[in-house]
């Protein structure tokens, strides 16, 4: 039996709809720069970082050198890039690993953005330039052991003592918590929820890492412990009042997740296509079998739709027409689609798919975390349901 020689594909797995043509030159150049950096400098080490459950702190400086930290903010050493450019970068980072994208999105969207939006000029000058270079690292303390999807039920408190604030409480599942130089901690006060900047080393403020994770392993995840932490009045974010503060911050970060999850899905599709074209069974590539092609077609359709959705949401943000419900749609759709793509890619690769030699099982495991952080899949479905019906299912 003569060998089957695959022809050159007419649809590239990384851009099935030809969306490259809709990007600006500077967006495309930045995307290509980050893609090459991830593939050349990071991917060789990602499997080991995942296996060891770590992510090197010095990556922050390397991302800072590329101008990726707080890249969508203006001034204070930030690049002032477009939402589309930021999203494309998140897609490339998560095509490498969710931990890479999480580091950049936490730093830029969950820490630098609230300082930029709600902070005093002194706070901005103190933290943003150093954060943009990666010299200083931050974390976002909202989630608690008993307050995840319902942040309004948080137990962390801040009470006044003269002109100072005294904070007590615990924050859980905090990315980069133990290696951060400052934590943005959200706490209940007599006047509602407020945000505070808590520098590392403040008496009463300690952290401990969460180990034995089976997902998002190439990332530092910590618990923040606050025991009578005394802060000056200048530590409060003056522009943040009520639950709308942290929710606004989360909305800013979720666009990166919409792009990032699709980047993970695209990486799985590319790996599965390459494997199916070269893996020989029964005398020919498994990609020539109808069942395998059906799987790849479904995966390709999900990836292409996700790319189109992400790009549309970014352009809406640039036009000022993006609503929180739109971002919920993006996270709801793209994360679940990416998880389905990763799982299907694993079946194409058989036993090889469960090893770290290939990225698909690592992405599948990571996406289990992405499915539930920054708003669970169920919560985003209720946000969409409320937007479609005008009826509130939360209460």
From TrEMBL:
Recorded catalytic activity of this chain's protein: glutaryl-CoA + oxidized [electron-transfer flavoprotein] + 2 H(+) = (2E)-butenoyl-CoA + reduced [electron-transfer flavoprotein] + CO2
Pathway(s) of this molecule: Amino-acid metabolism; lysine degradation; Amino-acid metabolism; tryptophan metabolism
Family, per entry: Belongs to the acyl-CoA dehydrogenase family.
Domain Acyl-CoA oxidase/dehydrogenase middle: 139-229
InterPro entries given in the database record: Acyl-CoA_DH_CS, Acyl-CoA_Oxase/DH_mid-dom, Acyl-CoA_Oxase/DH_mid-dom_sf, AcylCo_DH-like_C, AcylCo_DH/oxidase_C, AcylCoA_DH/ox_N, AcylCoA_DH/ox_N_sf, AcylCoA_DH/oxidase_NM_dom_sf
Domain Acyl-CoA dehydrogenase/oxidase C-terminal residues, every copy: 242-388
Positions of the Acyl-CoA dehydrogenase/oxidase N-terminal domain: 25-135
Leader peptide range in chain numbering: none
Keyword terms of this UniProt record: FAD, Flavoprotein, Oxidoreductase, Transit peptide
Keyword Transferase: no
PANTHER family: GLUTARYL-COA DEHYDROGENASE, MITOCHONDRIAL (PTHR42807)
EC number assigned by the record: 1.3.8.6
Cofactor: FAD
Chain coiled-coil ranges: none
Gene3D superfamilies: Acyl-CoA dehydrogenase/oxidase, N-terminal domain, Butyryl-CoA Dehydrogenase, subunit A, domain 2, Butyryl-CoA Dehydrogenase, subunit A, domain 3
Name of the protein in question: glutaryl-CoA dehydrogenase (ETF)
């Amino acid at each position: 039996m003569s060998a089957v020689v695959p022809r050159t594909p007419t649809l590239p797995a990384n851009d099935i709809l030809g969306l490259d043509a809709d990007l600006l030159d500077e967006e495309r150049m930045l995307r290509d720069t980050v893609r090459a950096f991830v593939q050349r400098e990071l991917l060789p080490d990602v499997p080991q970082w995942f296996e060891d459950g770590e992510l090197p702190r010095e990556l922050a400086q390397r991302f800072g050198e590329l101008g990726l930290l707080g890249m969508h903010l203006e001034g204070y050493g930030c690049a002032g890039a477009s939402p589309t450019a930021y999203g494309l970068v998140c897609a490339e980072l998560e095509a490498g690993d969710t931990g890479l994208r999480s580091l950049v999105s936490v730093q830029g969207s969950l820490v630098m953005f609230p300082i930029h939006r709600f902070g005093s000029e002194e706070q901005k000058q103190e933290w943003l330039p150093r954060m943009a270079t990666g010299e200083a690292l931050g974390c976002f303390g909202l989630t608690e052991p008993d307050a995840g999807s319902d942040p309004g039920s948080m137990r962390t408190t801040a009470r006044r003592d003269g002109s100072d604030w005294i904070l007590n409480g615990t924050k859980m599942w905090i990315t980069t918590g133990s290696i951060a130089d400052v934590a943005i901690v959200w706490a209940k006060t007599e006047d509602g929820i407020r945000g505070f900047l808590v520098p590392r080393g403040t008496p009463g403020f300690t952290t401990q890492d969460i180990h034995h994770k089976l997902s998002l392993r190439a990332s530092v995840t910590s618990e923040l412990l606050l025991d009578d932490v005394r802060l000056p009045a200048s530590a409060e974010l003056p522009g943040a009042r009520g639950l709308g503060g942290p929710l606004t911050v989360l909305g800013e970060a979720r666009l990166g997740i919409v792009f990032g999850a699709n980047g993970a899905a695209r990486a799985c599709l590319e790996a599965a296509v390459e494997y199916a074209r070269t893996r020989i069974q029964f005398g020919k590539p498994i990609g020539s079998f109808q069942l395998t092609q059906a799987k790849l077609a479904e995966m390709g359709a999900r990836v292409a739709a996700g790319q189109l959705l992400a790009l549309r949401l970014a352009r809406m943000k640039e036009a000022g027409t993006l609503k929180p419900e739109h971002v919920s749609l993006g996270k709801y759709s793209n994360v679940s689609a990416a998880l389905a793509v990763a799982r299907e890619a694993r079946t194409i690769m058989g036993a090889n798919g469960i090893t770290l030699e290939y990225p698909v099982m690592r992405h599948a495991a990571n996406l289990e975390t992405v499915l539930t952080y920054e708003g669970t899949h169920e919560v985003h479905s209720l946000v969409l349901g409320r937007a479609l019906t005008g009826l509130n299912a939360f209460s």
